[in-house]
Design the sequence.
């Protein structure tokens, strides 16, 4: 999944789409992970070296809701964002 921050300066990536698809395409499992890239003012993106999240075994990193409503999809979770 891909999430874009509300201000357009960060792009968050996770390596899970839907759990049923994940188990179909990766029957042996795949560790859940999330990474972030900074969007450049003149275009392009660069992976943030200090932002990489590994999830515990058995957990998938799907659509992430960030505290404070950083991404546009967080709007319904954080009405004041």
Sequence:
């Amino acid at each position: 999944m891909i999430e874009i921050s509300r201000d357009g300066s960060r792009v968050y990536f996770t390596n899970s789409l839907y759990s049923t698809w994940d188990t179909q395409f990766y029957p042996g499992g795949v560790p859940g992970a999330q990474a972030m890239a900074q969007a450049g003012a003149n275009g392009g993106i660069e992976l943030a070296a200090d932002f990489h999240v590994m999830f515990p075994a058995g957990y998938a990193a799907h659509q992430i809701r960030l505290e404070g409503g950083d991404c546009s999809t967080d709007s319904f979770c954080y009405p004041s964002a």
